[in-house]
Amino acid sequence: MRKDIPLDLVVVAPDPAWARRAEGLADELYVSLQPLAVHVEHIGSTAVPGMAAKPVLDLQVSVHDLEEVEGTFDEALAGHGFVRAPYRQDHVPAGSDDDPARWTKRLWTRRGSREPDVNLHVRVVGSPNERLALLFRDWLRAHPEAVPAYARFKQLLAEAVADLATYADVKDPVVDLVVTVAEPWARATGWQALTTMTVRPAARRS
C-alpha cells in the first residue's frame, strides 16, 4: 500500500445508510462510465451489514482493459469529484505464486465533498483481485457471526497505527486468513463472482 493514499484511520460504528448511498452511487457511475463499465459493485466493510468500518465507501468497477479506461474515466469521474490515485497494485495473498501482474488495478478517490468519501477500485473482469473483493464481501455477509471479531480487529488496529500504509500491511494477512476459509465455502455452495453481481436497470435496457 502506498503512503500517498489519504489517511482514513477512524473506524466507526456501522451506518445503515452506507448501503443505500453506495447503491445509489453505483447506479450513477454505471451510467456515467458506459460503455466501458461492465459492473459496478459495493464492496468492502461498508457493504457488510453490521460491520464497523472507516466511513469511506468502497466501490468496484469491472472493465475489460485498464489502460483503455484511464483517460475516459478521468474525465467522467471528475464530474463526480474523483481524482486518480497513483496506486496500481493489489496485495497478492500470502502463499500464492500468482503473477502480480494479474493483481493490477486503477484507483480513483473522492474526499472532502458534500457527498460520501469513496474509494473506486477499477479491476479487470475475471481477474483474481476482482473475484477476491466479491468473495470476501459475500462470505462475511453469509457469516454474520464473524463480523464482530473482524470489526474489533480493525478498531484495535486503527488505534494502534499511525498511517494507512501500516494499517493495510497488517490487515492484508488477516484478509488472507478469511479467504482461506471463504474458498471452501465458495466451492461447497457453488458461489461464483458472476452470480453475485447486480444487474442494473440500465443494463437491462441495453
Automatic annotation (TrEMBL):
Per its UniProt entry, which superkingdom is the organism in? Bacteria
Q: Which InterPro entries match?
A: GrpB/CoaE, NT_sf
A Pfam family name for this chain?
A: GrpB
| Identification of the protein by name | GrpB family protein
Species per Swiss-Prot/TrEMBL record? Streptomyces yunnanensis
